[in-house]
Amino acid sequence: FLNLGVFIALACAVVVAIILNKTVLGYELKAVGFNRHAAEFAGIDVPGKMALSLAMSGMLAGLAGATFYVGYAVNMQIGVLPAAGMDGIAVALLGANSPMGVVLAALFFGVLHSGKGFMSAMTSIPPEIGDTIIATIIYFAATSVLFTRVWNAIVARKRRKA
User: Fold this and answer.
1) Distance (Å, rounded) from C-alpha 61 to C-alpha 65?
2) How many CB atoms lie within 10 A of CB 157?
């Protein structure tokens, strides 16, 4: 089942990609994110850019929550809220914090979540297997980032010794 939130999310991802990759504001936001001290030395208003990035991410998270709950208001139960916020962190991790990567990771997670429901309905496989698969993917994504950083540190150390 799709609602209007999918199209709003795609439009927001395109707008964020354009802002981050094609504007001075995006360059400044990325500079502050990579190294706030260097950005401050370059003359960028670091506290202002940090507040702006927090406001933008809060706005996008609020928009996502509103479209989710308004779009599925018929199916909601009072007192039962889905844990979509934690999935958002995992999607950002798997999407490597790029707008298009996050869109692809969100589609992947959506397929896994809906497949989990169909898998338990069609076969005798418990739905917790789907959660286990999702958790395994998150762990491998997180450890791949860790291994990349460790490997880069080892290579940099060998270059300094040589």
Assistant:
1) 6
2) 10
Q: What is the C-alpha separation between 124 and 109, in angstroms, rounded?
A: 22
User: Tens-of-pLDDT digits for all 162 residues of the chain?
Assistant: 677 888 999 999 999 999 999 999 999 999 999 999 999 999 999 999 999 999 999 999 899 888 877 877 666 666 666 667 778 888 888 888 789 999 999 888 888 877 877 777 777 778 788 788 888 888 888 888 889 889 999 999 999 887
Q: How far apart (Å, rounded) are the C-alpha atoms in residues 106 and 146?
A: 22
Q: What is the pTM of this model?
A: 0.76
The CA–CA distances, whole Å, from 105 to 45, 99, 134 equal 32, 10, 11
